[in-house]
């Protein structure tokens, strides 16, 4: 199966490719190998993160190393980018050094798009501003399926700063592709002005969103991207208006899985008891870290598919 040279957004994939990645990730999870997948002529996989990351970068590093790839840590802070070199020149240099695939995170939405005409090497978007984060959505779907959620015909409520979240944009594209309905919920300043898809509903009523969903996916307020964050008390009532607490879930008698891509603002969009309590299905720590755990297998699948290497 042919995969794009640059995975910029979920729209670069079709349903068949998504299903292939899910099956491949499942294979890595349940049939691990004790020796590297690339034993002869291993590819060189680099990371280029122009924004901070813990989960995404580390999981790609581990995924590459588990596959047996040669990993190159490209640190923009100590590179010639600081001397004025542009991203294209940097990519051409990395290509000349033998890089086969690069995972790139950038603060600029769509910055990778111009490279699609003449890709210097395979590129995976590790998040570009408020635009897209395709691998996060793919690993989320994999985690949901592996923990018992069936997307087709069910409803997922995404609660939080939906407008400014690249994860939300990728989730909308992916989850509607697999037949899931979506409710976007948040304060008016955190919601898009119009419905982005026919199977997506907008509401500011968190009670409605919880009552009409089978899964909750929480998003943090994007402080670094939100123009109104600096205004006094703009989000001061968020924990009470839209925060998901154990009290709120118990009051509504909802027993639904809760997901969060991290990092979580405990006490704002997510209550500490929901995050830490290990005795209930509402417990975010369990599902949140399941997302982290499953990210390794999905990103192994993505790297291998992008490199078109067959075992």
Strand/helix succession: EHEHEHEEHEHEEHEHHEHH
Mean pLDDT equals: 90
- Beta-strand segment tally: 10
As for the number of domains, it is 2
User: C-alpha Rg, in Å?
Assistant: 20 Å
CATH architecture of the largest domain: 3-Layer(aba) Sandwich
* Helix/strand class: alpha/beta
Residue windows where pLDDT falls under 50 for at least 5 positions: 278-286
Q: What is the fourth-level CATH superfamily of the largest domain?
A: Aspartate/ornithine carbamoyltransferase
Write the layout of secondary structure elements.
Layout: E1 6-7, H1 15-30, E2 44-49, H2 55-67, E3 70-74, H3 87-96, E4 101-106, E5 122-128, H4 134-146, E6 155-159, H5 166-177, E7 181-185, E8 200-203, H6 206-211, E9 215-218, H7 238-241, H8 246-251, E10 258-259, H9 272-276, H10 284-307
Parallel strand pairs: 1-5, 2-3, 2-4, 4-5, 6-7, 6-9, 7-8, 9-10
Helix pairs in contact: 1-10, 2-10, 4-5, 4-10
Q: Can you give me a brief rundown of this structure?
A:
By secondary structure, this protein is an alpha/beta fold. Helix content is 35%, strand content 15%.
Please explain how this structure is put together.
With 311 residues, the protein is of the alpha/beta class. The chain folds into 2 domains: 6-132 and 295-307, Aspartate/ornithine carbamoyltransferase (Rossmann fold, 3-Layer(aba) Sandwich); 135-292, Rossmann fold. It has 10 helices and 10 strands. It has helices at residues 15-30, 55-67, 87-96, 134-146, 166-177, 206-211, 238-241, 246-251, 272-276, 284-307, and strands at 6-7, 44-49, 70-74, 101-106, 122-128, 155-159, 181-185, 200-203, 215-218, 258-259. Strands 1-5-4-2-3 form a 5-stranded parallel beta sheet. The longest helix is centred in the C-terminal third of the chain and has 24 residues, at 284-307. The radius of gyration is 20 Å and the shape is globular. It starts with 5 loop residues before the first strand and ends with a helix.
């Amino acid at each position: 199966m042919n995969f794009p040279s640059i995975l910029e957004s979920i729209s670069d994939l079709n349903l068949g490719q998504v299903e292939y990645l899910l099956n491949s990730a499942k294979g890595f999870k349940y049939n691990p190998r004790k020796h590297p997948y690339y034993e002869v002529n291993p590819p060189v996989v680099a990371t280029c993160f122009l924004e901070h990351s813990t989960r995404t970068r580390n999981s790609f590093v581990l995924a590459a190393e588990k596959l047996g790839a040669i990993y190159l840590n490209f640190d923009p802070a100590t590179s010639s980018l600081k001397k004025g070199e542009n991203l294209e020149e940097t990519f051409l240099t990395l290509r000349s050094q033998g890089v086969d695939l690069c995972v790139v995170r950038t603060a600029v939405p769509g910055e990778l798009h111009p490279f699609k005409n003449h890709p210097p090497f395979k590129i995976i978007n590790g998040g570009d501003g408020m635009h897209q984060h395709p691998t996060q959505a793919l690993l989320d779907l994999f985690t949901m399926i592996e923990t018992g959620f069936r997307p087709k015909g069910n409803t997922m409520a995404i609660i939080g700063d939906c407008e400014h979240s690249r994860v939300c944009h990728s989730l909308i594209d992916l989850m509607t592709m697999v037949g899931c309905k979506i409710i976007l919920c948040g304060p008016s300043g955190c919601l898009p002005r119009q419905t982005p898809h026919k199977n997506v509903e907008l509401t500011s009523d968190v009670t409605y969103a919880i009552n009409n969903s089978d899964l909750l996916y929480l998003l943090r307020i994007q402080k670094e991207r939100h123009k109104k964050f600096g205004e006094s008390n703009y989000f001061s009532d968020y924990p009470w208006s839209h925060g998901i607490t154990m009290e709120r879930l118990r009051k509504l008698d909802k027993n639904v899985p809760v997901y969060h891509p991290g990092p979580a603002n405990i006490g704002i969009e997510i209550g500490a008891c929901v995050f830490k309590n290990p005795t209930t299905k509402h417990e975010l720590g369990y599902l949140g870290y399941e997302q982290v755990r499953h990210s390794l297998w999905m990103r192994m699948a993505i790297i291998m598919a992008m490199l078109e290497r067959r075992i």
